[in-house]
Design goal:
The strands form 4 sheets. The protein has a 7-stranded parallel beta sheet with strand order 3-4-2-5-6-1-7, sandwiched between helices. Strands 8, 9, 10, 11, 12, 13 and 14 form a 7-stranded parallel beta sheet that branches. A two-stranded antiparallel ribbon has the order 15-18. Helix 14 packs antiparallel against helix 15 and helix 23 crosses helix 27. Helices cover 47% and strands 12% of the residues. The longest helix is centred in the C-terminal third of the chain and has 20 residues. By secondary structure, it is of the alpha/beta class. The structure holds adenosine-5'-triphosphate, magnesium ion (MG) and zinc ion. Adenosine-5'-triphosphate binds next to helix 3.
Length: 640
């Protein structure tokens, strides 16, 4: 373990440097830093009021969508107030990422963690001691160490920012025991303004965070902001997996040259899919926890630094990665539960430009997820919550209603109207009266004594004389062969939908046998009807939708594609030279604005999204040079 020389500090090093601004000026000052440091024209929804509350000294718990700009809500106040801001986040990759971005803006930030070398950590400790850092990212397990606490106690800490705050809750989907140490830290460092952020906290998780993380005096109750969960720029689509590879290939063909992530249920599958995509001519790598650390971080770096890489990965990949231009996330297999689904698709389109998602699933996936829950080591309470979250996801997959309405409904946001940006709104899923099909399926279940699973029941409905059908004499039942108007895949979908609608229940501990619920009996008896989706085997209209998304990404026609590519190439070269991700130089959106507006002076470059003072100084001339060369090139003159 590395020892930190915290005893050598002198009082002089620790003199606080408060820079308290008059409260009225706070928001205006924040606005001006937003422009000069970050190069952003305006706050995004919710940011201004959260920052105002933080600058007024109050504790805050903010729940905002993935990619909506929570980091800025603690980074900007950290620049404006005296003292040091401690940022806690659960992953070292996440801390490194943010520190790289902040340094790119010219902000004094560092991260204290166990993967730093001895010298690196010592330098950081000295910087903290001298009051030179504005933000220090610290891993939660570090905060439990007495020497860290001693260091911080003398370092004029003004603000504790807890990112991914759901990690403190055992109900959350990502519980980290080390987050429990944060409450103790409050006592050790004295009353400390605490601000916490997360994208996924339902009501139970929020209550948990409030009781575990904050000072409990009534006058100091944190202000809670819940800014909803919607990510309108993400297109949502889900589809039964019939031919996984070709569905994947079709989806990706609409995204040539884009960065994307394909989530897979196993390490083996991640490797296979990456190889498959390479055969298809796609730049693709794999990532999972079974790789050695060096290879893992090499692949991650390529994904971050190069344009157009597709990562086939297990869920070990992606948390805390703020690559803003990921244009699609595809789940090759059903995600773990609805919160994981939301987090994982949230890695697409963080720049606010259109992005695409597709989730593939099968009845087998659902069964596997159920077994994982039942056979896992979690407490009964936890398993109950896990089951509910999985059921919510299954229902979302089979929903005949707008995906976004269904998803937001799960998080407690009701009343949204149909979104117009999901497969169901796009009309690729037709709804038909499914009462007769439902009655046939349930009659097959009843007549076989509620003892059989999907495949056997489908054999019965299709009139297949398998060995099992003959052994049980099911070929003599009146239901034998009555379901030939649907094929096997359609029947599978019908079973899942009846399940999602609460008509059937699936025995998850046994062999997946189906039993009938009261709601199902009503349909069976003809007392109620049910609408079912006609499973779209190849989703119609998808190509058109994706083309539209790609055009929208590049703006209304006027962006010069050749110039955009030239700017990307220069950015790549700059990123490689500094060994940082390309977006740390500038995000796609900035390059798109340049390709559209073709600025010719530094003053015009300064007006581009994402170009603050530091970026202007470092890269302004570089990109002007690309634009000038492009304008002067013969092909360009011909085009004019
Ligand atoms: N006011 C703004 N204008 C333009 N871009 C912004 C603004 N605020 C933040 N961003 C950008 O939005 C992107 C996403 O921000 P951030 O990483 O803070 O998301 P997040 O809310 O923490 O999401 P997650 O829950 O997934 O971690 C970043 O690339 C950031 O630079
Ligand atoms: Mg974040
Ligand atoms: Zn919709």
């Amino acid at each position: 373990m590395d020892q930190e020389p915290i005893t050598k500090m002198t009082d002089e090093h620790l003199t606080p440097k408060p820079t308290s601004l008059p409260p009225m000026a706070d928001l205006a000052a924040a606005q001006s830093l937003l422009r000069t440091v970050f190069g952003f024209a305006e706050f995004r929804a919710g940011q201004a009021e959260i920052m105002e509350t933080i600058l007024a000294g109050r504790d805050v718990l903010a729940v905002m969508p993935t990619g909506s700009g929570k980091s800025l809500c603690y980074q900007l106040p950290a620049l404006m107030r005296g003292g040091l801001t401690i940022v806690v986040s659960p992953l070292i990759a996440l801390m490194r990422n943010q520190v790289a971005q902040l340094r790119g803006y010219g902000i004094a930030a560092a991260s204290l963690n166990s993967t730093n070398g001895f010298d690196e950590n010592r330098t950081i400790v000295e910087q903290i001691a001298r009051g030179e850092l504005r933000l220090a990212y610290v891993a939660p397990e570090r905060l439990a160490k007495p020497e860290t606490v001693a260091l911080l106690r003398r370092a004029n800490v003004g603000l504790l920012a807890v990112d991914e705050a759901h990690c403190i809750s055992q109900w959350g989907h990502d519980f980290r025991p080390d987050y429990m140490n944060l409450a103790a830290l409050q006592n050790e460092l004295g009353p400390l303004q605490t601000i916490a952020f997360t994208a996924t906290a339902d009501a139970a998780t929020r209550a948990d965070i409030l009781s575990r993380l904050f000072r409990q005096q009534p006058q100091e109750q944190p202000q809670v902001f819940v800014h909803g969960f919607d990510r309108p720029n993400l297109r949502l689509a889900m589809s039964a997996r019939n031919h996984g590879r070709s569905q994947l290939a079709q989806f990706i063909s609409g995204h040539r040259g884009d960065s994307g992530i394909i989530y897979c249920a196993s390490r083996r599958r991640a490797e296979d899919i990456a190889a498959f995509l390479r055969d298809e001519g796609v730049k693709s790598l794999h990532y999972h926890a079974g790789m050695d650390a060096a290879e893992r971080s090499r692949n991650q770096d390529v994904f971050l630094q190069e344009d157009g890489v597709v990562m086939a990965a297990t869920i070990a990949f992606g948390m805390g990665i703020d690559k803003p231009d990921v244009r699609f996330v595809c789940h090759h297999d059903l995600p773990n539960n609805i919160e994981s689904y939301y987090q994982e698709i949230g890695r697409a389109g963080r720049d606010g430009l259109p992005a695409d998602t597709l989730t593939l699933f099968s009845t087998g996936d659902i069964g596997l997820r159920r077994r994982q829950i039942e056979e896992g080591a979690a407490s009964d309470d936890q398993k109950r919550v896990d089951r509910l979250r999985l059921n919510a996801l299954v229902a979302l997959c089979e929903s005949p209603r707008c995906r976004r309405q269904t998803l937001l409904g799960y998080f407690g946001e009701t009343g949204a109207s149909a979104c117009g940006n999901c497969d169901i709104c796009a009309g690729s899923v037709a709804v038909v009266d499914g009462t007769i099909a439902a009655q046939k399926a349930m009659s097959a279940i009843v007549r076989t004594g509620e003892r059989f699973g999907t495949e056997h029941l489908i054999n019965l409905l299709l009139g297949e004389e398998t060995e099992a059908i003959r052994n049980f004499r099911h070929d003599a039942l009146p239901t034998f062969g009555v379901g030939k108007e649907h094929d096997r895949n359609e029947w599978r979908s019908i079973f899942r939908q009846l399940y999602a609608a609460g008509m059937l229940s699936l025995d998850i501990t046994g062999y997946g046998r189906w039993t009938i619920q009261p709601a199902g009996r009503a349909v069976l008896k003809g007392q109620a009807r049910i609408e079912l989706r006609r499973q779209a085997v190849t989703a119609p209209g998808k190509k058109a939708a994706r083309k539209a998304a790609a055009t929208a990404t590049l703006g209304e026609g006027s962006a010069d594609h050749a110039l955009f590519e030239a700017l990307r190439a220069r950015r790549s070269a700059l990123a490689k030279a500094q060994a940082v991700p390309a977006y740390v130089i500038l995000p796609d959106r900035s390059l798109l604005e340049m390709a559209r507006g073709k600025p010719t002076t530094l003053g015009e470059i300064a007006g581009i999204h994402g170009v603050g003072e530091m970026k202007l100084k470092l890269y302004g001339e570089e990109f002007l040079d690309v634009i000038r060369r492009h304008q002067a090139s013969p092909s360009q003159r011909r085009a004019d």
